[in-house]
Amino acid sequence: MATFKKEYPDIVDVILTECSIYSADGRKFHTEKAMWDTGADTTIISSRIVSELQLKPYRQGGIAGIGGASDSNVYLVHILVPTGDFVTYVEVMESDFEDYDVIIGMDVISFGDLLVTNADNKTIFQFRTPSEGGVNL
Q1: What CA–CA distances, in Å, run from 60 to 23, 73, 99, 101, 105?
Q2: For residues 114-123, average pLDDT
Q3: Is the terminal CB of the chain with fewer CB neighbours within 10 Å at N or C?
Q4: Regarding the domain with residue range 15-111, which homologous superfamily does it belong to in the CATH classification?
Q5: What SS3 string covers the chain?
Q6: Is 80 exposed, middle or buried (0-12, 13-18, 19+ CB in 10 A)?
Q7: Can you give the pLDDT at residue 61?
Q8: Which segment of 59-63, 79-83, 121-125 scores lowest on mean pLDDT?
Q9: CA 26, CA 130: separation in Å to the nearest integer?
Q10: Alpha carbons 96 and 19: distance in angstroms, whole number
């Protein structure tokens, strides 16, 4: 079991961590700008990652967000989450957003236990893998 914990000095409205995206042939993209989003069903990667890893789409899929719905390329990647664990063969969608490199969705979050608390006027984020149920991280 591995647990990642990040404390912010204030209450934040966005949880950002590091993560790495690996192509099927082992090329790696590391970022400090991975946003965790429990409202996203699917993990999304930026066009910059697609370009740097020279990813090839294997199908099209629908993506919907604040800007509406559109078609997106779908890629198969491996994701190294901050606990040091790999989530393998993840179908990710491409988006042209610029604020984040990765939006980690529920398809990855569901492999572990996630806790966000805002006690003492600061935010604490924890993620544990594998999932053990319960809320005591």
Answers
A1: 18, 5, 23, 20, 18
A2: 94
A3: N
A4: Acid Proteases (2.40.70.10)
A5: CEEEEEECCCCCCCCEEEEEEECCCCCEEEEEEEEECCCCCCCEEEHHHHHHHCCCCCEEEEEEECCEEEEEEEEEEEEECCCCCEEEEEEEEEECCCCCCEEECHHHHCCCEEEEECHHHCCEEEEEECCCCCCCC
A6: middle
A7: 72
A8: 59-63
A9: 23
A10: 19
Task: Determine contact, residues 32/89, Cβ cutoff 8 Å.
Answer: no
pLDDT of residue 68 exceeding 70, the answer is no
The neighbour count for residue 67, using CB atoms within 10 Å, is 9
Q: For the chain, what are the domain ranges?
A: 15-111
Q: Which of 83, 122, 104 is nearest to 16 (CA)?
A: 104
Rounded to two decimals, the pTM is 0.89
Per-residue confidence (pLDDT) for residue 97, from 0 to 100? 83
CA gyration radius, the chain: 15
More confident: 64 or 84? 84
